[in-house]
Amino acid sequence: MNDILPEQVRRWHQLEADFRLHAELYGYAEVRTPLLEHTSLFSRQMGETTDVVEKEMYSFERHGEQLTVRPEGTASAARAYVEHSVHAKEPITRWYYLGPMFRGERPAKGRYRQFYQAGCEVLGDAGPVCDAEMLDLIAGFLRRIGVPDFTIHVNSLGSAGTRGRYRDKLLEYFTPLRDRLSEDSQRRFERNPLRILDSKDPRDQEAAKGAPSILDLLDDDDLAHWKGFLHALDVLGLPYVVDPGLVRGLDYYTRTLFEVKAVGSDLGAQSTLLGGGRYDTMIESLGGPKVPAIGFAMGLERLLTVIPEPPPRRGPGCFIAPIGAAAADRALLLARELRSFGVRVELDGRGVKLKPMLRRADALGARLCIILGDGEIERGVVTVKDLVGHAQDEIPFEGAARVLADRVSEPSPDISHARGLR
Ligand code: HAM
After folding, report:
1. Could you tell me if 68 and 79 are in contact, meaning their C-beta atoms sit under 8 angstroms apart?
2. On the CB side of 250, how many CA atoms lie within 13 Å of its CA?
3. What predicted TM-score, i.e. pTM, was given to this entire model?
4. How many CB atoms within 10 Å of residue 39?
5. Which end of the chain is more exposed for a tag (fewer CB within 10 A), N or C?
6. Which residue, judged by its Cα, is nearest atom 32 of ligand 1?
7. 275 Cβ below 6 A of ligand 1
């Protein structure tokens, strides 16, 4: 779990603001659900035999209830959708969310126990165009934030019937190889052979090399959906890789599945920036009506690893350096007045000599340094040192805030030192 210090939080704010803006362009509105849910919500929806449910959830009992700190956002959003009968209010719902998720995984670069996801969910639209448009949103967002290169991987798991037939085929295929599989895969073999395809264990990966492709088993409706999806991706000019081995680590998926991977990053095994897919049966299994759904979530830490650093934060518009007790009182009021004009102000209240205060003003990259000592008070002025243009003058204390606010909003004489602009 990471502490995120202010220098980094700026990047987070920017990324979150970009995401909100982009998602809203596509008609999504934010939903906020609790960090805690009943454990059964996740175990039933994500699947008892998934890694997340078997080994990674932070679960505990309180007041006789089994609770889990959310490992993802989809099941919570679906629960809220059913609980508030949202289907009765609108035929199509587009929600996005941003926030921390918790999984007790083995930590590595790009893999944390508290990590942040931004995700989108569409409920009420079964059509393949919706799936392609979601990838359009994603690709546009990744370009907007400056992800240098990425690949889109797609697959279809078919509907529930297709999945069942695929499961049988996989059992048949893996049975003679069973002894060569990892312990986890041997244990979950009968209950969930699809997990073997998703395993990171080299023994499982080797065994899965010749596994049958689910794309060969799709029924007519699944196939029409799959083709419609690929057609819409082609219309949008989005390049993609068809990856029949892509099954993803959660059990709720049906039909369309996708992942986006960073190319050329140093994230190693964690280069998957985001993943998602359809979950057309979840709403019904939560006691709601038959409502199809699709969504995705991306890991914000991973995105921040691959996007460029922003320029350094600009310094305050005004740095106020008071010398002596009387000056300190005036400085307090001047600082407040300047801020009321929208100027960012740093008031040095340490009561130190001028030199260390000037040093600090410089270090902060302030535009103007306002010096207030006994001499200034006697003359009814403040001394204004322009730290960018290197000029110095005096202005009357009366009305100084307005004059300083105007100066700060003027373009800097030297743009390369523009850090001090308001
Ligand atoms: P997921 O593949 O488990 O899917 O997670 C989505 C993304 O969250 C991953 O691609 C990765 O970027 C990030 N992520 C996951 N675990 C970690 C971790 N331990 N540390 C850092 N980042 C991580 C879901 O969560 C689904 N709810 C996505 C979805 C939404 N499907 C339909 N709707």
Report:
1. no
2. 27
3. 0.92
4. 18
5. N
6. 295
7. yes
Residue 419, pLDDT score: 37
In the reported structure, the alpha carbon of residue 109 is separated from the centroid of ligand 1 by a whole-number distance in angstroms of: 15
Contact (CB, 8 A) for 373 and 381: no
| pLDDT above 80: residue 414 | no
Confidence of residue 160 (pLDDT cuts 50, 70, 90): confident
Length of the chain: 422
Instruction: Assess whether the C-beta atom of 105 lies below 6 angstroms from ligand 1.
Output: yes
* pLDDT at residue 412 greater than cutoff 70: no
Average pLDDT over residues 326-335: 97
Q: How many CB atoms lie within 10 A of CB 192?
A: 18
In this structure, what token pair is assigned to residue 421?
Answer: 């602009």
CB of 296 closer than 6 A to ligand 1? yes
Whether 265 is in the pocket of ligand 1, judged by its Cβ within 6 Å, is no
Instruction: Kindly report the protein residue whose alpha carbon is nearest to atom 22 of ligand 1.
Output: 299
Taking CA atoms, 348 is separated from 369, 370, 388, in Å, by 11, 10, 19
CB of 155 within 8 A of CB of 334? no
pLDDT tens readout for residues 271-308: 999 999 999 999 999 999 999 999 999 999 999 999 99
Tell me the C-alpha to C-alpha distance, in Å, between residue 178 and each of 133, 165, 249. 40, 19, 20
Q: Count how many Cα atoms sit within 13 Å of the Cα of residue 278 in the half-sphere of its side chain.
A: 27
Which of 283, 286, 238 has the alpha carbon at shortest distance from 258? 238
Give nearest CA residue, ligand 1 atom 11.
299
Q: Residue 103 CB: number of other CB atoms within 10 A?
A: 19
Asked if residue 302 has its Cβ within 6 Å of ligand 1, the reply is: yes
Q: Is 258 in the pocket of ligand 1 (CB under 6 A)?
A: no
With a 6 Å cutoff on the Cβ, whether 47 touches ligand 1 is no
CA–CA distances in Å: residue 12 to residues 218, 295, 305, 405, 419:
41, 22, 11, 29, 21
Work out the number of other CB atoms within 10 angstroms of the CB of residue 190.
12
Q: Which of 125, 274, 279, 307 to mutate to test the pocket of ligand 1 (most atoms within 8 A of CB)?
A: 274
